[in-house]
Amino acid sequence: MVEKMHALSLSRRSLTRRRLLELSSALAVLPVIAEAQPAPSGTAAAAPASTAGGSAVIDVDRARAAPIPIAIPDFFGGAGELAHLNHDLAQVITNDLANCGLFKPINPAAFVAPAQAFEQSGVPAWHDWQAIGAQALVTGRISGASGDSIRVEFRLWDILPQQQIQGTAYTTSVKNWRRVAHMIADAVYERLLGEQGYFDTRIVYVSAVGPMAHRIKRLAIMDQDGANLRYLTDGSWLVLTPRFHPKRDEIAFMSFAHRQPRVYLFDLTTGAENLLGMWEGMTLSPRFSPDGNSVVLAATRGGASNIYVVDLATGRKRQLTDSGAIDVSPCYSPDGQQIVFNSDRGGDQQLYIMNADGSNVRRISFGQGRYATPVWSPRGDLIAFTRLGKDTWNIGVMHPDGTGERLLSEGFAVEGPTFCPNGRVIMFWRATPARDASGAGRTSRLVTVDITGFNEREVPTPTDASDPAWSPLGA
Amino acid sequence: MNIRILAAFAVAALVAACGAQKETAATTTGAGATAAPSGPVPGSEQDFVQNVGDRIYFDFDRSTLRPEAKETLDRQSAWLEKYPQVKVQVAGNCDERGTEEYNLALGQRRADADRDYVVAKGVSAARMTTISYGKDRPVALGSTPEAWAQNRNAITSVQ
Question: Chain B contact for A375, CB < 8 A?
């Protein structure tokens, strides 16, 4: 058996989060090997080359109808202080795959294959896994490396053809163990569904506590599954609408600091906050361009709100709209060529698209009610929005030409969709109404839903939460 | 006793006075006019709230001034003419039946409509600032049409 190490360093933008992981592809004990090919820098990881004899990929639509049965037994090898990781790594992977709705992790109580047999032979007891209906099997071995680092070797097995379809080893500081679990879940997702996963991602959102008349709002950031929560601002000032930079460890958001509501940039590595440009009025609804070189936002003046793009290197502003109406919530198409935005220029809030230079404005929403908060899918094929009906609101999607509108979720107040990096899942927030004049009964929670409207789930947060934004993969 | 300790006392006293004043103003705003025997100090925030009216209301998704809003703003303009040292901030607010970003711009439009009217009446624009809180600073906490009507406002406060 040969073990070949590729010391590939992944895109590590955050010192705390990203620096310490190394990925190597481990040669398998069985002849079929899939090599993971993580991207060397900022860009999203490339799809692994499809190797001869690799598993038949199940497409996402089929997996929605029939989630893939997968067995994820506890890892082995972790000893002493690392012993808990045997179970915990498997648990995080299990949760990721179960929550996405496309996999059906098999209850470990049903496992018949003795763990020791695999540990000794290094080969799954194929028939035992087949007997409980597993289509795929994830195994992992943990070993201590130097210092506080660990090495986690993961293998993905296709049960029916009895072959390994991926083997990858991760070496990292032990405190990054949850990230390794998410990366393994992403590898499983990608290998079995043929699309990049989205588990090694974070969510930035606005946390709210305190009485309704005196809410304290703070920027909060957490892993996609709710772990590793930390607060970025101290609640001194109202903060709203944080959004991730596509490449750097940076967030654009709106702060009411010194009662001057403006867009700021927040450096996640240093914690520094910087005002984005000097403006006569309020600036709001920022989003980075796909190349990360500029921010598109709205600025108010004289009762109107117009859309501007600000070059981050030069600070130069360029005004894109001047309708005298309220133009807000701009968002670039993934190719950077177009911008979708919200405007009441036609009398009430609707969705419009323009070219990135402000030309060729056309309305795309024509359904019932008002439309708001458009965001462009990372795949380019959909625009998600909030639709405001008379009594209830919806989260929905439509094609960029306005056709194919579908409503995914409904409630008293559902608002502010954000796409996961592969475009398959949308997160938004759901607010409940007050039961009485005291405001009792109000809650605000983050929710995910598949773009087909299935698998709606609440995302756990310890406080009320709103304004979620999904990070790029590996950020 | 050295001067530094004196200074500390002075600061403490100022803070206390300030806190008390704010408390009074808040109570007055919340409970409506409760005429104290002596009445509010002319030219004070309390005077403004009780005797002039510190807020105007808007229709849903609109920033046009209603007739009664103009009457309130006429009284505000006259009061501001009378107390030329006073500076004010107009805060525009929205009900919860709109999206956050749009409501921020709508609240600003309401604050601007208020400010523009008062400035047109002759009050110096330099004495007035505006801000919008969108739907983030409701005065009524219920989820009823009545609560929403109260929350579609522009509230002027003495700075």
Answer: no
pLDDT of A212 reads 83
Q: Is A258 on the interface with B (CB under 8 A)?
A: no
Q: Which 8-state DSSP code applies to residue A472?
A: P
Which domains, from first to last, does chain A contain?
A: 8-193 (3.40.50.10070), 202-470 (2.120.10.30)
Residue of B nearest to A258 (CA): B131
Nearest to A154 by CA among A184, A178, A124: A184
How near does any CA of chain A get to the CA of B9, in Å? 26
The phi and psi torsions of A272 (rounded to 5 degrees) equal: -75, 140
Q: Which of B93, B115, B143, B144 to mutate to test the interface with A (most CBs of A within 10 A)?
A: B143
List CB contacts (< 8 A) between A436 and chain B: 142
What ipTM was estimated for this complex? 0.89
Residue B30 touches chain A, beta carbons under 8 Å: no
CB contact under 8 A, B100 and A342: no
Residue B157 region by backbone torsions, left for phi larger than 0, else alpha for psi between -120 and 50, else beta:
beta
Instruction: State the pTM of this model.
Output: 0.87
Q: Which domain holds residue B109?
A: 40-158
Kindly write down the DSSP assignment for every residue of B37-89, as one continuous string: SS-PPTTSHHHIIIII-SEEE--TT--PPPHHHHHHHHHHHHHHHH-TT--EE
In total, how many domains does chain B have? 2
3-state secondary structure of A93: helix
Q: State how far the Cα of A441 lies from the Cα of B4, in Å rounded to an integer.
A: 50
Which segments within A201-302 are labelled E, that is strand?
Answer: 202-209, 216-223, 230-231, 239-244, 250-255, 262-267, 273-275, 283-288, 294-301
Question: Which tens digits make up the pLDDT trace of A292-310?
Answer: 999 999 999 999 999 999 9
Instruction: Give the CA count within 13 Å in the CB-facing half-sphere of A57.
Output: 18
